[in-house]
Amino acid sequence: MPLLGSAIDLACYKKDALRVADFDFDLPEHLIAQKPRPRGDSRLLVVDRSAGNWREIPFRELPQLFDAGDLLVVNDTLVFPARLTGHRDPSGGAVECFLLGRDETEDGVWFALVHPGQKLKPGARFIVEDAARAPGVVIRGEVLERLFHGRRRVRLQQEGAATLDAAVDALGHVPLPPYIHRPDTAEDRARYQTVWARARGSIAAPTAGLHFDDAALAALDARGVSRASVTLHVGYGTFKPVRVDEVEAHVVDPETYVVSRETSAAIASTKANTHRVVAVGTTTTRALEHWALMRPEGAAFHGEADLFIYPGFRFRVVDALVTNFHLPRSSLFMLVCALAGRELIQAAYADAVRREFRFYSYGDAMVVL
Q1: pLDDT digit of tens for each residue in the chain (369 aa)?
Q2: Can you point out the beta strands (E) in 174-300?
Q3: Which domain holds residue 140?
């Protein structure tokens, strides 16, 4: 396969020398994917750090890049339909309630973004129902408290469903990212979810995993590539723009994660045998590297990852990364630059833009080796 381009990046970056503008690039709007391709049908850009170059292959050839003994680590979080649309009670005005996460101190209470925020003050009530999609199922909500950055505490109660989660599943909409400019569809219910998702809790998909299907997993198994999982629940902070000028001043919102004893043992065995730990996605990467920094007793760990990875960071676990193409100036783009070098990644991205790769959640894929 001929090379598409090459670049060498031997620079050592100092934290205080990095500016957000250094991570900007031109991205035409039409390259931000609005709809998914079938699983496994994406294009894949293979970035080779040691050679300082990259090439394109079909995503289905990804398993051929790994060897027996390598370990693929995935994020097994499950996305729930967090966007509720309804009307105010009793006025009837339209309401949107975007669930961010439970308030674990009180049953039935959630943190949420609501719209219109100026009208949904503490004490405001709303109703979510859809007779066509879920006859007889109703969610009644009340705003309890106004918080920072437009967030609210809301109390939710269901009718016509055994649990609130069941009512949310029946009435909620898939929380597609804000840069996808269309309503969610029935297809998104399955497609905006990895095939290994099991632990409910995310409001955004760990999108690098969306490319994998059962055939890809079987091909990896056949090559002797092991698989392990972490659970990191992706929060709204994944869409948080970097609004500062200096990279180091940006703060990443914490997200809860779990690294199990089994995954810890698999990583230790892989490293001891000098094989590669391959992270599927930036969320998996952040969980693993935060876990490594915490050095938990007994190896298993349940905590909150608030780690911001940018050039200058020393990776302790991740040897290779499967990821999507990210937006300019984003913390996710900076993470990829931290692993592969800014100049190499910027050159590869520039070529990907020229060749019209599809970007972000429903876009094409990259692997950094």
Answers
A1: 334 443 333 344 444 579 999 999 999 999 999 999 999 999 999 999 999 999 999 999 999 999 999 999 999 999 999 999 999 999 999 999 999 999 999 999 999 999 998 889 999 999 999 999 999 999 999 999 999 878 999 999 999 999 999 999 999 999 999 999 999 999 999 999 999 999 999 999 999 999 999 999 999 999 999 999 999 999 988 878 899 999 999 999 999 999 999 999 999 999 999 999 999 999 999 999 999 999 776 678 899 999 999 999 999 999 999 999 999 999 999 999 999 999 999 999 999 999 999 999 999 999 999
A2: 199-202, 226-232, 255-259, 277-280
A3: 83-173
Question: Does the reported pTM lie above 0.70?
Answer: yes
Contact present, 299 and 261 (Cβ < 8 Å): yes
Q: HSE of 41 in the Cβ direction (CA atoms, 13 Å)? A: 6
Encode 320-347: b = buried (16+ Cβ within 10 Å), e = exposed.
Answer: bbbbbbbbebbbbbbbbbbbbbbebbbb
Q: What is the CATH number of the domain that holds 161?
A: 2.40.10.240
- Residues 285, 339, single domain; the answer is yes
